[in-house]
Design brief:
alpha+beta; Beta-Lactamase; Heat Shock Protein 90; six-stranded antiparallel beta sheet; five-stranded mixed beta sheet; 11 helices; 52% helix; 20% strand; binds adenosine-5'-triphosphate; binds magnesium ion
């Protein structure tokens, strides 16, 4: 970048920067350009962009312009200027670092560099969440002026947007992976269920027919017994297949909506492992888009499966409207669980149900509440706001 002389030059340099950044997708290169622009435009020796690492409660120096980069990590609750700005959001300007008690000379002591003047500005995303700070060190000719603070704020804003895009991009990738994992696991379970209920029965059935055919000429009653047993097995397999089809795509959901589907699900699962499953408040509902209803129904199924699997005696399924929202609620009287601790260790658990519940809620734009207390049952509540142009015509 050519040396900057006046306001018009600054403006031109900023516009060029914005244009270049719009074409750049690599986060570190964007931040490096911002830091370099900070040095050039503000006429400073060094500029560092620190980024918040929320998991570790730290700020870390992600890019630096004008010096040898060695990673610096600062506790977010510590005394450093960068952490102070990260906490308060207030820009700090220091004209004489060693004469200012807020300055911590430790980093200088380690690097051998001497800080004279400092300008530190917060880097926020568009929602005002703190993403990091921009720290500009040693104005080349004298002290930082007000205009330098404004330039720093503008560059910090650019860095904030870049960090936000990178975060959203990362989240989207994670979400896609989770969705792929759920779809993969669902196919896996479907294949296993089809194998256990249908494939086995058909294979055994062929053998039974063969046995009956061989017996028939000499011992017709024995052949009939064999065929009778086969009939019972085929009926059981048929029931199994219907269960699978119901779980995949219940016709009653398409025809009657969530309340009817809740009743059908309760009816179908009632008595499984000795658990009472009953419909609760089930009222005719405004119809929603089919994929939204399907997502809500999946949540209902998964929550009911959990109640049955994890020791409830009684489960109640509700589907009704309240304050312009469709509410789906599954309540059980089982052992309950410590939600925070299960969520914390979820990645290692290999379980999928709660993940599927959470992802389904997110994908259909619903609010999910998971209330559980050990010894006092579990309630899974989903609130689906009615978006007028999204509601299907009933
Ligand atoms: N209704 C419930 N009552 C008691 N515990 C529950 C209930 N729902 C979930 N849990 C607890 O939360 C854990 C995670 O549930 P999740 O549905 O994700 O996994 P899972 O049911 O163990 O396995 P999967 O659903 O993958 O077959 C369960 O292992 C159980 O400890
Ligand atoms: Mg489960």
């Amino acid at each position: 970048m050519p040396a900057v002389r006046n306001d018009a030059d600054v403006l031109r340099a900023l516009l060029t920067l914005q244009r270049d950044l719009a074409l750049e997708v690599h986060l570190d290169r964007i931040l490096e350009r911002v830091a370099a622009a900070a040095c050039d435009l503000i006429r400073a020796e060094r500029a560092t962009i620190y980024v918040v690492d929320g998991d570790r409660g730290e700020l870390w120096s992600r890019v630096m312009s004008g010096g040898e980069m060695s990673e610096i990590r600062l506790p977010l609750d510590g005394r450093s200027l960068a952490a102070t700005v990260a906490r308060t959001g207030q820009t700090i300007v220091i004209d004489d670092a060693y004469g200012d008690e807020r300055f911590n000379p430790e980093v200088d002591a380690r690097s051998g560099y001497r800080t004279r003047t400092l300008l530190v500005a917060a880097v926020d995303d568009r929602e005002g969440n703190r993403a990091g700070v921009l720290q500009v060190v040693n104005k080349r000719d004298g002290q930082f002026a007000d205009a330098d603070g404004e330039l720093a704020a503008s560059l910090a804003y650019t860095a904030g947007i870049a960090l936000e895009h990178a975060r959203l991009h990362g989240e989207l990738r994670e979400e896609r992976l989770r969705v792929v994992r759920i779809a993969e696991e669902t196919r896996h379970r479907l294949a296993r269920d089809l194998h256990d209920t249908i494939a086995q029965t058909l294979a055994n059935g062929a053998v039974s027919v063969e046995v009956a055919a061989r017996r028939a000429p000499q011992d017709m009653p024995a052949a009939l017994v064999e065929l009778d047993a086969l009939r019972a097995k085929l009926l059981a397999a048929h029931r199994g297949l219907r269960d699978i089809l119901f779980n995949l795509r219940p016709v009653v959901l398409e025809n009657g909506g969530l309340a009817e589907a809740a009743k059908a699900l309760a009816h179908r699962l009632d008595g499984t492992s000795g658990v009472r499953v009953e419909p609760g408040r089930t009222e005719a509902l405004t119809r929603l888009r089919p994929e939204v209803e399907a997502g809500a129904f999946q949540i209902m199924q998964e929550a009911t499966n959990n109640a049955i699997k994890h020791g409830a005696k009684r489960v109640t399924l509700h589907a009704y409207e309240k304050d312009g929202e469709t509410i789906v609620r599954v309540e059980d009287d089982g052992a309950g669980f410590d939600v925070a601790s299960v969520v914390q260790h979820y990645a290692q658990s290999g379980s999928l149900g709660l993940l599927q519940i959470r992802e389904s809620a997110r994908m259909i734009g619903a609010q999910l509440m998971l209330e559980s207390t050990p010894g006092r049952g579990t309630r899974v509540i989903v609130g689906i706001p009615h978006v007028p142009d999204e509601a299907a015509t009933a």
